[in-house]
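Justification of resources, computational component.

The compute hours requested in this renewal are based largely on the per-chain cost of generating structure records like the one below. Each record pairs the submitted sequence with a full structure-token output. That output is archived, and it is also reused by downstream analysis tasks.
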Amino acid sequence: MLTLATTTPGEPELFASLQGEGPSIGRPSTFVRLSRCNLACQWCDTAYTWRFEGDNRPHRDDAAFERNTNQLTMGEEAVAQAIAALPPDRLVITGGEPLLQGAALARMVEALNRIRPGMHIEIETNGTVAPHAALDPMVHQFNVSPKLAHSGNPADLALIPERLAAWAADPRAVFKFVVAEPGDLAEVLSLQETFAIPGDRLFLMPEGRSGDVLRTRSIWLAEFCSQNGLRFTDRLHIHLWGDTRGT
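The structure output for this chain reads:
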């Protein structure tokens, strides 16, 4: 079984849209959002996947979500069939932290490959969890988003050296760092140097849940990328649909 987030109570967050971030930005994609996370970013825009009632990990909205209306379980075969019924030939598995459910994901992707062979599989991850051995060979792209100090996560939980080194050595992995202030940039450059992350696989993305905030931060962040040989990514879905589920 897979544990999914919901768009409304009883409805899984499984939908077709455009990829809004990273190297696949603008591509038609099917999204599956899984529930649960091992980190707690204070600016997380999907806190409904992890900050359930009784979870006191800090978040700037200080909202607690009722688990039964924001989380549901589905069989791997049922998830695969729902994905196959949507038009895009690209699947983005996001969260939460999807790799916490690696074994079930492997069974789902295996079923999907039987039903609809040839789909491109992307997984969005915070970079702290190794891919399950059965899942790893079926993934075409890992969108790895290590969490900087401003996320509020302790570095020993969010920035695990052996995992970052493994991702840097995997050509399927691209790095996406969420940046809120110019002061965050020195941390990015330090991590790039420490783990020898190629600039063409390192994206910087402004933190923000509104178009106005993203545009303001994009001005100086894009300039920094151009001066340092890094790649810039916007958050297309926020500009198009706002901070809403199922987009």
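Residues 10 and 89 are 26 Å apart (CA to CA). The helical segments are 67-70, 76-84, 102-115, 155-158, 161-169, 185-195, 211-228, 236-241.
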